[in-house]
Design goal:
By secondary structure, this protein is an alpha/beta fold. The chain has ten helices and 13 strands. Helix 1 (3-15) packs across helix 4. Belongs to the LysR transcriptional regulatory family.
Length: 291
């Protein structure tokens, strides 16, 4: 069985479009179609519903996806292990990160480059649930996410640091050292939407002290929230790890009502054996732990 046919099928499922799948595999569209047709002939089953455009995978095509992911990941791990044994690790480490963890990306990338200078790092932003799913599907090698609140299952985790929340608004003069939740929640707030774990943690902590946030605007990134704050009409609540990255106009105010800190860490899928990329990520995590 040709491994390329499995790669083409996975790309087609991911891209949902023949031309985009071919481009992702760095082949022509006729080559991709021929590879999938050969795979169908070998299995004796139709895997793709075809018309002039991609319609979807057949039941048989969807059924073999988990096995195709495992086969492709196992072969990639085998190749990486063989290449790394006599020399430096090469290739691409795919890291998924929740928005709250983005300030830690620089530390991770710097340490990875120090340990494995010939390794490329590919970073993508996802929700915590997407990271867990992509690790299970072999689409990511490692993730930066919350490791205590809604902890993902089937992973090896390395806690890296704890975050606390800051109230952020456009500078209006002297800022108080701290602000109470009553005053903060009375402001026109923009927050992450409830599909983001940072927001769910905030809501849970507020509920525990008898409060609730009712934001006037929501978004899925801190860049969008800061753009709203920059307008002068909104304030926001975000992790203190973002403090070094905030622009000069942003006023950062601590909360005078303590809330539990949230642990962010590195996770990889708990498999035997762990692949070279997962081991490389864990080595970085061990060096960065509580730095």
């Amino acid at each position: 069985m040709q491994l390329s046919g499995l790669r083409y099928l996975l790309a087609l499922d991911r891209e949902r479009h023949f031309a985009r799948a071919a481009a992702a595999c760095h082949v022509t569209q006729p080559s991709l179609s021929a590879g999938i047709a050969a795979l169908e002939q070998q299995l004796g089953r139709r895997l793709v519903e075809r018309d002039r455009r991609f319609i979807g995978l057949t039941g048989e095509g969807r059924a073999i996806l988990p096995w195709a992911r495992q086969v492709v990941a196992a072969i990639d791990g085998l190749v990486q292990a063989a290449q790394a044994a006599p020399g430096p690790l090469t290739g691409e480490l795919r890291l998924g990160a929740i928005p709250a963890s983005m300030p830690a990306i620089g530390m991770f990338a710097t340490e990875l480059a120090r340990l494995h200078p010939q390794l490329r790092l590919s970073i993508s932003s996802h929700t915590s649930r997407e990271i867990a799913a992509r690790l299970a599907e072999f689409a990511l090698d490692a993730g930066l996410t919350y490791v205590e609140h809604e902890p993902p299952s089937g992973v090896v985790r390395v806690p890296l640091y704890s975050e606390r929340m800051l109230f952020v608004r456009r500078a209006t003069g002297d800022a108080p050292a701290a602000i109470g939740w009553d005053e903060a929640l009375a402001q026109p707030l923009c927050l992450l939407h409830q599909g983001m774990q940072n927001r769910r943690i905030l809501d849970a902590n507020l509920a525990a002290i008898g409060h609730a946030a009712r934001p006037a605007a929501t978004a899925d990134s801190y860049v969008a929230l800061l753009a709203l704050v920059a307008s002068g009409g909104f304030a926001t609540i975000m992790p203190d790890s973002y403090a070094p990255l905030l622009p000069a106009w942003a006023q950062m105010i601590a909360f005078d009502v303590a809330m539990p800190a949230s642990a962010i860490g590195l996770i990889v899928a708990d498999r035997t054996p762990l692949g070279p990329m997962a081991l490389a990520a864990l080595a970085v995590g061990d060096r960065l732990r509580d730095r």
